[in-house]
Hints:
Blueprint: E1 4-14, H1 15-26, E2 34-40, E3 43-50, H2 65-77, E4 81-89, H3 98-102, E5 110-115, E6 123-130, E7 133-142
Parallel strand pairs: 1-7, 4-5
Antiparallel strand pairs: 2-3, 2-4, 5-6, 6-7
Amino acid sequence: MTAILETRLEYAIPRKLTNQLLHLAQLSPNAEICGLVGGKNGMPVRCYPVDNVAEHPKQRFLLDAGQQISALAAMRKHGEDLFAIYHSHPKAPAEPSWHDINEAAYPDALYLIISLDTKGVLEMRGFKINRQTAEEVVLTLLENESI
């Protein structure tokens, strides 16, 4: 059994980027969407959607390897680092599944999970996942988008 720990880490996410991620999830109500978020100076700045090539995309996500490499190259070109990996849960809460925790390969990245399994209000939560342990972080909306 995996554990979700509570922590006091806090991450500010620009409202424009948050809206983009939520919109991408809404466009795919029956399959998980996924991608990367590039950041500069510890702040998220750009979304890089990547195709989900999982065998069962309704319940799992697997980033297309070629698109993931291209997204990481584009980040370097823009002077960005990998800030987050995002995906959606169309029919599950915004918390990491057993597969999400066991397959997490970037301990320095934030994992953003968007749930469509709500009553009219989308939910996005953030987690740091390392050594098969997920720690929830506090996400705050950043109104001022200048970096």
